[in-house]
Design goal:
The structure is a homodimer. With about 600 residues, chain A is α+β, with helices and mostly antiparallel strands. In chain A, about 55% of the residues lie in helices and about 10% in strands.
Chain lengths: ~600, ~600
């Protein structure tokens, strides 16, 4: 909670957001009370079921249904009643018009406590946001209040068995039935929350192709396909949506992952959202928020693993420092071993660095919602640039972080008696959800870096420079600012090197190492977030004005910034070396060389 | 199998080992037939149960027993009958006097197929080796034949709940009962194979402290403590060894991990092995082999994950290259995507690099067993230096490799329908077994690098230089040799920098970043193994003498060498940057800064 307060009050001041008309109904005290009540909810209704929901995973009942943990109903109900499904929506849509900075701080708390269960209501919130953004008044009225109330589950249905990440190739079809609706036929897999016991109805936001639509992504439309169709008289009629299975997974086992079949009996109706063939662009509004959300889940679970390993290290006596030769001396707490400190600080650097970046994204998201014109565009560009980073850094490095949590506990960490192994298992899906790491990397290098002639990148570099300038004021921070500036130059060198391929028309080669580029870029972006935190912490220490925090807390931030620069940032140069190399090794034609 | 043949025939020629008197009873054809029969055994009796043994994990029966998969009995029996428990032992001890190069190639095949079940008989082999090395004729006669026959399970019992990695602090006690035996009392945890249904008796090689022994590791003795005591008349008497539980784990779920209680009824007898107070040094003979074995398991499981993801990538059509804009064109196989090639080559570089190093260690181990005097000492020193590397590189990078296998499969990789998630879960324990990564790193930097005034390091650097010299003959390989030489210099610079702390008596600081040093060192050692493989492959390609391999196979080796140098090796310099930094960040005294 201390870290959340630090982010909201000092690093990315939420009071600036409250000063915007859209959010002027809020103040700090009230918002913090909401967050504290979210913490109570998480502690009472979610955390105690974290392990159970893994040990008794969601599973198919053999006949269209998915068995879930009985507590799930309570969790979704509590979340709904406390505004944590619809809270981010506008007043006019039945929401509380909360800024993402507040809303997602609460979600972070839920994710840290029990990420499987948070998935259900967070997904509902995203689906409802899609309807309120692009749906008709009637669609909004029909579906959104029930989703916000936690009675109906919203989902997003994109993936198909044969297409995977390649949305170009989806084949689910839609045929106008003349009455304003469409007849749907097709199959979707990996549909989170697609069917379970805690909700009465399921509202599937589904991508499908209208008969005669253009090939590729330009022919995809968005439909609302409820499991039960809400008739005008308020009754619900079965809509030929059949759940054919629930994938069993190595983690996030409390969160069902279903296989849906639409129109097996030729009687599945879908309701078109917005205009035909624009489905993918609508879906991407939700998708972009979902990507930030996945980054936040990953950072939150890594944070939970960090906290668990920190607690263990603070309580477990074992071994002696290398300088202590006397075997009769009592063992020391393992937190005193340098290698354990290294593992703890690595986790802190990753988890808190990722959380700081998530909060930066939340802030930008709020600014996008509350500003207009050129200013809005600037925030939007920066947000779009940071989205693949926050999603991928948090998930890839979050997994590494949770591995270190296990390592701190030694053999115990690998047993089901401690939560860190579950964090590790849960985390692994984050690099796959909502666009794999490979997809995110191509998005970054192929689209975000070059959009509007590199304007987003220009804005980011300006922001980074501003932080470097602020650090330069303080002697002890100045050198870190200089190091960051060097890494910024290195990114520009790499981009110059890669751009030559794009200019020659070799787009495959330009993008071939996009993942390595994203890794390099991420180190720099997270270093920026750490320097930002350190400047704030140093300022507070200098002023003697500790606000809500302890002196140790601020010193911990500066220490962890130094740690990140010393242990993590050097790998950015290693990535650059790979990227600048003249050889092209990932365009092998004869596949036999892999064997 | 192709890769195994390449290692045994070309990279580390086993025929040189067959020329030594100890192994002169063997030849290539016969040895390879044994390996092929091991492959049949693995395919028939082990691989088909890989998934089942995970889905129905070993578990405590509530009353001293552990339920295991029914197939386990067959597997142990088959392994025993085919010589894969006792095969490495000398003829005089009932073995087949196989070199480790052959024996461990077979074990690698078993580990790739079903690592949980291989653990049982591999552990038995290690326990028996300990008895044959340090036990009396009577002890050998009493226990070893039954272990080799697969009837009795050997185990190693070191860890205690309060001591973990710190063997200094073990408290299990032994009191002479005057009849040549000792009365044992204490508890051990994390005892693999400690109790199960597939064997009739359990022979626990146990560390304990004789009454009045010196404190610390100098007062630890080694005992044989069977579950049932073999009486002179051949009967078995219960020996007050109680299994109090079986830890449930996130991986290797088919391999039981027990909690043993010795002497709860004051009637547990132990049989001292060798001299009192020398137990730890005896145990370390087994431990060193166990560490290499853990490295081999990790590399083997990573290899299995690689193969599974390679097969998927070769069969799954999805998406199009970035340069292909036509959505109507058929999707390409995912192996054609550069990012998928990057993930596959990273896995190949890690798994085959680690396997090559394991084979180097097997070769050294065979030379240690078959030579004498100064020559033996030289092989031993190099083996000791490489042991923490092979154990740690394989386990840490193996986990990363298996994560990439999941990633290649996308969402499917996270489901229980594919084996890669099990490989990923199984692998995580390898960085904990037989000394955690932190312990291995301190062993490397605190002991191995400095022993005999750095002689082991000197020998290694000579070996590396020899490989560089061989590469220099071929123009296309020369530059990689030069790069490797640069990295060797960097290691020496780091050691010079760190040594200053040791010389000042600050041993804590000298060792504080041992793990980062081990990481740097590992990149260099694996680069050496890759260059070695590339030189051999290039030589064969030049000569047109392809022996048993395909041209593509050799080209794949050279290609993967280049990949390792381009994508992995640059991170060695990043580690060096961390290690050379002036700041000391892992000696935090006020623990509040972690919060």
């Amino acid at each position: 909670m201390e870290h959340n307060k630090f982010l909201l009050q000092e690093v990315h001041p939420v009071k600036d957001i409250f000063s915007l008309p859209r959010y002027s109904h809020l103040n700090w005290e009230e918002s913090w009370m909401m967050i504290e009540s979210a913490k109570s909810l998480a502690d009472r209704d979610m955390a105690p079921y974290f392990k159970e929901m893994d040990a008794q995973p969601a599973h198919y009942d053999g006949n269209g249904g998915v068995k879930t943990h009985p507590q799930l109903k309570t969790i979704i109900k509590q979340a709904a009643e406390n505004g944590w499904i619809g809270g981010g929506a506008k007043f006019k849509d039945g929401g509380m018009q909360l800024p993402m900075m507040i809303y997602n701080t609460a979600q972070h708390i839920f994710m840290s406590a029990n990420n499987s269960s948070q998935g259900y209501f967070s997904l509902s919130a995203g689906s409802a946001a899609l309807i309120t953004s692009f749906g008709t008044e009637e669609q909004i009225k029909t579906f959104v209040p029930n989703i916000f109330a936690g009675k109906w589950q919203g989902t997003m249905a994109l993936t198909e068995p044969q297409a995977g990440s390649s949305l170009t190739d989806i084949t689910t079809s839609a045929k106008s039935s003349g009455d304003g609706f469409y007849k749907i036929k097709g199959q979707k897999i990996f549909i989170s929350g697609g069917q379970h016991e805690a909700c009465d109805n399921f509202v599937h936001l589904t991508l499908a192709r209208i008969e005669g639509a253009p090939a590729g992504t330009k022919g995809i439309s968005l439909f609302i396909i409820p499991k039960f169709w809400p008739e005008k008289d308020g009754s619900l009629t079965p809509n030929d949506v059949f759940c054919a299975g629930d994938f069993q997974k190595m983690g996030q086992r409390g969160y069902c992952t279903t296989h849906l079949v639409f129109g097996d009996k030729e009687s599945c109706r879908g309701w078109l959202v917005g205009e035909p063939h624009k489905g993918l662009s609508y879906m991407f509004q939700m998708m972009n928020e979902a990507r930030i959300s996945v980054g936040l889940v990953a950072a939150s679970v890594a944070m939970a693993a960090y906290q668990a390993s920190l607690q263990y290290a603070s309580e477990r006596p074992q071994g002696r420092l290398a300088s202590e030769k006397d075997p009769v001396k009592a063992p020391t707490l393992i937190i005193n071993h340098p290698d354990v400190q290294r593992m703890l600080l690595t986790q802190k650097a990753i988890a808190e660095g990722a959380l700081a970046l998530t909060m930066e994204c939340n802030r930008l998201s709020d600014l996008v919602h509350a500003t207009e014109g050129e200013e809005r565009q600037k925030h939007l560009l920066l947000l779009e640039l940071l989205t693949p980073i926050v999603k991928t850094y948090s998930s890839e490095q979050g997994s590494r972080s949770a591995a270190l949590a296990i390592q701190v506990l030694g053999g115990y960490g690998f047993t089901m008696d401690f939560p860190v192994q579950q964090h590790y298992r849960d985390l692994k899906i984050m690099s796959l959800y909502e666009g794999t790491t490979g997809i995110q990397s191509i998005d970054l290098l192929g689209r975000k870096v070059v959009m509007e002639k590199g304007k987003a990148l220009f804005i980011l570099l300006q922001e980074i420079q501003e932080t470097i300038n602020r650090a330069a004021v303080y002697d002890p921070l100045k050198k870190y600012g200089n190091e960051l500036a060097e890494e910024v130059v290195r990114i520009q060198q790499v981009l110059k090197h890669l751009s030559a391929f794009a200019q020659q028309g070799d787009i495959d080669r330009y993008l071939s190492d996009a993942t390595v580029f994203l890794e390099q870029f991420s180190y720099v972006v997270i270093a920026w977030q750490w320097l930002k935190q350190a400047v704030v912490a140093y300022t507070s220490l200098q002023s003697g004005n500790f606000q809500n925090q302890r002196q140790d807390f601020y010193e911990g931030k500066i220490h962890t910034m130094k740690f990140f620069f010393r242990y993590e940032l050097p790998h950015a140069a290693a990535c650059a070396k790979t990227l600048m190399d003249a050889e092209y090794l990932t365009s092998v034609k004869r596949k036999e060389v892999f064997h």
